[in-house]
Structure formats: structure tokens, C-alpha cells
Predict the structure.
Amino acid sequence: MSTTGHHVVLRTSPHLRETPTVDVIMRNVVYALLPIVAFSIYQFGISVLALVLVCVGTCIAVEHLVCRWSHRPTTVNDWSVTITGLLLALTLPPGFPLWMAMVASVAGVGLGKLFFGGLGYNVMNPALIGRAFAQAAFTAPMTTWVPILAPDRFTSFIPSTFTLPFLRPESIQPWLEVVAPDGFSGATPLALMKFEQVPTDSLQLLLGSTAGSAGETSALLILLCGAYLVYRRMMEVRVTISVLVVAALTTLVFYLIDGDKYPGPLFMLCSGGLMLGAVFMATDMVASPVTPLGVWIYGGLIGFITIIIRLFGGLSEGIMYAILLANACSPLISSLTQPRRYGAPKKKGAA
Amino acid sequence: MSPDSHAFIFLNAFLINNFVLAMFLGLCPFLGVSGKVKTAWNMGLAVIFVMLVSSVCAFGINHLLVRFDLEFLRLISYIAVIASAVQLVEMFVKKFSPALFRTLGIFLPLITTNCAILGLALFQTNREYDFTQCLAFSLGAGAGFTLALVLMAGLREKLELADVPDTVTQAALSLMIAGLLSLTFMGFAGLGG
């Protein structure tokens, strides 16, 4: 048609589109999380299904009840609390006792979100507050892992799932000997690497055929689900990029210093909760900075602290604490990286 | 890192065993002066300064007390000497650097008899740090205090406009943020060890 190569695109009205509202965005995040939940249920069986239902149910109930008690309209309908429940369930170990999951949900939504006035005012990611609470209160169950693809996973629960309230779960060792007769080390790839210097194949990590928290196993699937949100323009992709890039660079530095002692970047990126955290939790819209430069700094901070805790800390995984800490820093990052107003004179020295 | 190295002592007091968020010392200035980032920052500088002064004083006094076999006077002499040393320095600063005094001045009397300051002096005595280790320890503790204070102030400034429930008043909100920050700092447990 035209020889210049420029095309004039003709469209009929309407040209103005409705901007996505909070509940539309939140609903799409839930859609993006569902494949991860489904994959996790496929891997670990009905125990994860129960865990997800309990977490989401408790979170919704807490939000609804607190709204009613504080004489406000209920905010359950904006879907954000559903995301919190899903994310919390995905960060817990598959055989986590359900009553403990309820406690973590109450702590996350009640103390981490509604205490500060609900959605929009939570200073840190509520799901991670719930998990951090559980990590502090129930250390042993939080680090009890189960093998994937156990033969009877769709017909029977992991024995620790139905621990009676206020009781500690019994040892799952007898059950483990039945489902994994070849022996199961009971450690995640990160713990294996950190405490026993045993690396795990990166392809396994990418596809998710390793032990770990319910939703932190397949890096590839999480990336695909994140890509959907990026495509819908409902996710702050700059945060994810800077988390992953800085984490990879930090790992690379230590890997080049001593390749025998420290793992390589690909292992670090694909293992543990880094991918889930970078895609779904670090990008929490409320608790991250609002300035363009601040977003990069915030993501970089998360990536850096994660790797430092993983390599030098007492824990094998650090993404949760890294995100919480960066959440705490984000008001400061925002105020320190205010862009210069157009036309305003440059600042000289201290303001 | 060896536990005796200066870097480890600094890091330990700065993050891992943060005076405020892991050992719960100095909570009154932490809750009282964390309303604004600007004042929190100045307060933090004052704390670093006072901690340095008191660390040096405590180190000297402890030597004297040990020499004359008077260790039972440690607590009271630490308090007296640290408070008077800070007062002296305050007068000195007031005379020679009014600008610095305006920044730090009002905070200095507030914190001279604080538990964080006394705690610092007692910890360094108990752990038998030598002089340079004492300096690293007091700098780390002061920097950690400043970090906690500034983070807290940032969050509180952000929450000034929040629609918090009526039952949650100022103090409850501050304590809740402090608790969450403390939970966050648990992630540093075991770092470098």
C-alpha cells in the first residue's frame, strides 16, 4: 500500500479504555498464581490442597471479621486477601500442620495488614509476615520437607498435616520410609548445597523436581506465570529484573572468588523461593517504593541481602527476610530518590 | 570471620545482635524520637557519639577498678562517669560548635543514662574487648541503633496518613512496627558465624 513503510492504523471508537481497578489487577494475580498452586498439588498431593484451602479460608475469614468488628465495609471482595492466602500457602512446607497454617494466616493478615488499616497501608508483605511469624514460632515444622511425587499423594495426607491444635507434629520418619524407600535426605537443594556442599542439577531446579516449600519448586513455571502479569501490565517487572540481576551478579562474584565453595548463579536463581519472591512478593505494590530509581534500588537490595544470607547466614534461604527488610526500607528509598521536578533548579549540597 | 575480628564485632552489634531490635535495649528513645526521619537521624548521630564517648570512658574506668580491686563499683561508676563525660563534651560542643550543638544538643541529655549506653559499657567489659575492639563495638552498636531508628521513622511517617483502626493508637502502632522490624532482623541470625 504505502511505500514508505509507515502504516496508519485506523480504529473505530472507543479509544479510551477503563484503567484496571484494584480488584481487576488482584484477580489477575490470583489467575497467575493458580497454575503454580495446581503444579504444587500435582507434586505434593492433597496435603497442599488442604493447606491452600485452609490458608485462603482463614485469611478471608480474618479480613471479613476484622472489617465487621471495626465497623467498616468488608474488603474481601478486592481479592487481595486471597492472594495473601495463596502466597502464604505456597511458602509453607507441604506437610505443614494445618493449625499452624491458620495461626500464620491470622498473624499475616491480622497483624501485618488489617492492623495498619488494610490494603494500601500495610508496610510489609502480609504473606511474608505470616511466614516470618511461623518461622519464629514453629521452627521445626517450617524446615521439615517431604519428597515430591510420593506414590499415594492423591489418596492420603502427609501425617503431619492433621496435627491436633497446640500440639507438635509427630515425626514423619515412618511415613517417609514407606513413600521413599530409597532414602530421602530431608533437605532442600539450598540446604544440601550450604551444609553438605552437594549441588543439584539446574535443569531439575528449573522444572521443579526437587523438595522445597509448596510453591517454590519450579522456577520456569513461576517465570511463565509472571510473564502473563507483565503482558497484562499488572506487575512491576523492574523489581523482578533488578532482584534477579543483582542476585546473579552477587553470586557470580563469590563464584569467581571460590568456585568450589560457592554455587554458581544459575543454581542460585533457580533454587529456593527466590523466583517466587522476586516475581510475586517483592512486587507487592503497597510495600515497594514509588519512584523509578527507587524501584531499582529496592530490587537490588532484595537480591543482594538474599544472597548474603544464603551464603553467610545461619539460614539456608534468605529471600523472605530480604523482602521484609527492603519493605521496611522502601519509605526511605522513596523519599531519598524523589525525581527532580521539571524545571526546578538542581539541589546544591544538603537540602 | 573469627569472632574476635573487628569486622565481626561491628557487624554483630550493627545487624545480628542489634541493640534495639534483637536485644531490646534503648526502647524509650526508639519509640519516642522515631516520629520524623530528620529527628531520628540526628538522634542516631547523637547516640553514635555518646556510645563512642562512653565506650572509651568505660574502658578506662574498668582498668582502674580492676587495678584497685573495686569491681563491685562498676555499675555506679560507669553511670556517673559516662553521664558527666557526656555533659562535659556537651558544654564543649556548645561553646565551640553551635551548629553541631543545635543538631545533637537536645538529644544528648536524653540518652546519657539510657540502658543501651550502659548495656554497651557492660557488654564490652564482660566480653573483655581490647581498646580497638571497644571502638568497633560502640560504632557498630551506634550505627545499628541509627539504622533501627531511621527505618522505624520512615515507616511511621508513611503510616501518618494511614487509615488505621480506632483501637490502634499511636503507641500500639509504634510497638507493632517495632515488632515487625524485630521479626525481620531475625533473618540476620548466624550471619558470618
